[in-house]
Amino acid sequence: MKKTYHLCLSAGEEALFRDLEDYYKGFNCFALALYKTDSTGLVESFMSTHAHKLVQTHAPKDLMFKFRNPYAKYFNKKYGRSGRLGEGIHFTLEVVGHHHTIAAASYILRNAMHHGVAPLPFAYPHCSANAIFRREMGKFQDEALLPARSYSRFLGRYAEYPDSYKMTESGVFTRESVLDIPQMEALYGTPRAFNFHMSRKSSEEWEAEQKKDANGMPPINLLSIESGVNMHDESKMLIFESGKADYRNMSDIDLCTELDALARNKYGRQSVYQLTLKEKQSIAEHLYRVRHISESQIRRCLVLPK
């Protein structure tokens, strides 16, 4: 019988996903890895520096290898980078029981909110929050689908995937066709209950509920979900959970896209990875002094050493 795991790959202060194409490629690699390992995807959230997944699988290590290896090859080729992408060992947490699973899924779906990137899970496009109870929650927009013969443009000629996977014209598999959304809807029960968990505050009461599972495991909470991630301090993340963040700040995806375009158009380089330290420092000074972008964001998007 498959076990349920929370898996997380982090890159620390380096961006794993620099532009929209990267996010799409990352999800496609995850989808193909699920198929190759006979695993079931439940929910996921792809952030700029890390990716959370809740899966049911016999082989969590194999699943993560089959996700990260092809993605790293794509990333290194695209940006002229070399070496391992992401931490050496991904984070693994077994999830057991109804309440344990709801808590893990909810924290994963709320990840962008906890990092101050979006005010609500539904406002963040790179997670599966909008795939659950989609119609009941009023999500009626459907992007046109590609014919299966066109998938190879985005996956390569020899990619293996089931006929059930559907791809949009943007070149990314739909979450509804890849993930077991019916299982997640059964887990939450109703759209109203799902909406409650998407806006629920972290609390001792929520942790106490998980003891009903009698699994002998510590409760899922913000710290356990973010283990291994170079995150904000917990107090700041709880402030973000309350909706108190400045969402007008430039996102990593926008800044990384802008900087790689600058590297190509002004410096004639493949990406920021080919810029000299002096060039990076010059760009960083402008971003910090003129555009008031934080030092930590500048470092990860410019790949500046500490």
What does this structure look like?
This protein is of the alpha+beta class and 306 residues long. It folds into two domains: 239 residues, 2-Layer Sandwich (Alpha-Beta Plaits), CATH 3.30.70.1290; 51 residues, no CATH class. It has 14 helices and four strands. A four-stranded antiparallel beta sheet has the order 2-3-1-4, sandwiched between helices. β2 and β3 form a beta hairpin.
Calculate Rg over CA atoms. Answer: 19 Å
Question: What is the overall number of helices?
Answer: 14
Strand order of the largest sheet: 2-3-1-4
Q: What is the makeup of the main sheet?
A: 4 strands, antiparallel
CATH superfamily heading of the largest domain: Transposase IS200-like
The CATH topology label of the largest domain is Alpha-Beta Plaits
What is the element string, with H for helices and E for strands?
EHEEHEHHHHHHHHHHHH
Q: What fraction of residues sit in β-strands?
A: 5-15%
Q: Kindly give the count of domains.
A: 2
C-alpha end-to-end distance: 45 Å
Return the CATH architecture of the largest domain.
Answer: 2-Layer Sandwich
- pLDDT average, as an integer? 94
Please give the oligomerization state of what you see: single chain
CATH class of the largest domain: Alpha Beta
The computed structural class is alpha+beta
> What's the count of strands?
4
Overall geometry: globular
Unreliable runs? none
Proportion in helices: 40-55%
